[in-house]
Amino acid sequence: MAAPDREDRRLRSSTWFAGWGESAVEHRASVRALGIELKPDDDRPVIGIAQSASDLNPCNADLGSLAVAVKRGIWAAGGIPFEFPTISLGEDLMKPTAMLYRNLMAMDVEECLRSYPLDGVVLLANCDKTVPAQLMAAASADLPAIMLTGGQRRAGVFRGARLGAGSDLWRYSEERRAGRMTDAEWAELEACLGCSLGACNTMGTASTMALVAEALGMMLPGVAALPTGDARLVAAAETTGRRAVELVREDLRPSAILSAEAIDNAIVTLAAIGGSTNAVIHLCAIAGRRGLRPPLDRFDELGRPVPVIADIRPSGAFLMDAFHEAGGLPTLHAEIRDLLRPEARTVTGRTLGEAIDAAARTDGRVIRRRDDPLQATGAIAVLRGNLAPDGAILKLSAASPSLYRHRGPAFIFETYEEMLRLVDDPALPVTADSVLILRGVGPVGVPGMPEWGMIPLPSRLLAEGVTDMVRISDGRMSGTSYGTCILHVAPESAVGGPLALVQQGDPIELDVVARTLTLDVDQAELARRRAALAPAQTQHLRGWPRLYREHVLQAPEGCDLDLLVPSGPAALAFVEPTVGRS
User: Fold this and answer.
1) CATH says 381-531 is which class?
2) pLDDT in tens, 151-168
């Protein structure tokens, strides 16, 4: 759609600031207190900078310095910047999970965009849930928007080896629980882990979502993989600020960028990078805000022919700084161009294909060549069966092929606390063939769907040399995690999904090739168990957790709130506030 002529379009902010009426004078006087003088006929776009920096969130703590550079770019392009804080969601410290508050942050950002005199916005985020939350808000508000992420942290070094955030902690934790690592070595590792600000330097959810945002066309090409503190990221921040002003002048909005083609590009990208399973939920939520509802099977359909060519931990060998130096996302896209929708539009005003045309070609090491992939087919499989009638997810690139076909008896942990208490009990009645189940940890169950799906292997089995087992939950796992972990089982057990009906010792069968997950118990017995099923209980009876439990959708629908998802084309309209006397 062609942008309207400049003189035919009035800036949204002029509703607040234009003219000599009482309200306009009040509004201009308000910003004068900040040292910004506006004229009654000012035609400079007002650009918000939504940033989620917080001392409670080291992944996002450095965003303030990037906001300074973004402001420079906005001023230089003839705009007026207004920085404002948002909720900051940090997966490390926020319990039970930052996912519980992703939708709240999306509401926070959307309502700021609605209620303030903003013509466009720069979305400045970095941690797992902050990026999708801001994208969800931008999709709903549909003001001109562009995203910038804050980069990945520097790698610590432990005994000569560079540490991958998350992944190496889980690996060394298993070594310690197996008795192969001393307390002194464990303390030494801790001192090496938190050595800088920034997001996880592996292909965790933060890095995955930054690359997904770029694949969606919501970021400048090649920026998503820049490390924290890099001068090139600061330069990109200034360019992002300039581009935000141009987006307003061109009237280029998320509705023109977040198309079905863009969602497909993000799904293919997710497969090629061996990205976090959490991105499946976030992409469904972002798409849902624009009235696009890709079925869960779309991730399998598009992902199967996609080779995993990003050799990044936990699936591969390298860290995210190496991915950027190898050319970043444009270079990876160039290797799989025929699997993408190059006609999709981006915030540059050009297409994804044009960004690919300008990309450097891979040297075949960190971003591998198509004919020498890390894995021949896509990273994520969608499983269905009587245990997951609405679907479940398995990250193939982090799983053990030897377990792709497996049958074993269920061993159930009813709660996370029970799992922590029992998993290191040497008398735990499990073998390497057992299928470990943790239920009650889905969107409604905790609530919030924590990253508890990488159930620790029992320490007795670790000591015996077992390195992986089939694990099933209705929760999530960190993108830095690994193992044959079946996640997002839907419907979840807390709303009566079949996972609630499993009993100790029930035979469970996984067949990755057939994409099936089966509970081998006859229907009559399952019906008897369902009749005896007690409703799930919760301690959260007030506030946001209560609202969340009452309105959250299941994983295949993105775990958004039903009241935030448009019910039809008319519900996509952004309702402007009434602007008058304060």
Assistant:
1) alpha beta
2) 998 888 988 889 888 888
